[in-house]
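Please predict the structure of the following assembly.
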Amino acid sequence: SQKIEQNSEALNIQEGKTATLTCNYTNYSPAYLQWYRQDPGRGPVFLLLIRENEKEKRKERLKVTFDTTLKQSLFHITASQPADTATYLCALGNQAGTALIFGKGTTLSVSS
Amino acid sequence: DTGVSQNPRHKITKRGQNVTFRCDPISEHNRLYWYRQTLGQGPEFLTYFQNEAQLEKSRLLSDRFSAERPKGSFSTLEIQRTEQGDSAMYLCASSFSSGASSYEQYFGPGTRLTVT
């Protein structure tokens, strides 16, 4: 069955450092991969989408890479800030753009 | 555009009761999705609509669950004869799809259901 794993449940870093979150998947060939941010008690907020034919995408301090051979995506937050503290979810999508398959998320804590 | 809205935000009900949740998507979005999320887990897909047609349902969606999207606008999710295992956050999302598809899904704040 399809499986998506985010490498660690929690990641603690100091302000100003780069946070790197990992998303691995098996038994699936996604057409695209998305990253969401979720704060406690709130719905996920869309951050970035990267398609299967793209290697890297950037948005402000965020960078996503996608390696379909390794079946892995890396999500980077550079110059991290305490306001980046949240849970980050990886989600896989199919060509039809229907249901997303989510990982459990990685909780990032940025301390000042 | 005020984003996706969901009502109520919280619902506490006794086991065996029926509950109904409402989702109002972003106005120009033709696709609407329902997900369920429990503590420490990512959202799990339940069902989705394109306009008023319900096109896909997860096997998680037992026959106690029913969803509608009359006129392709707002949607309702009803749970009949609630069980304690139904306690979760119910999330609604919407997106716009046109031929080549636009895949970003925008989520509402969720409805937190507690079954006692």
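Chain B touches chain A through 29 residues (CB under 8 Å). Chain B has a mean pLDDT of 93.
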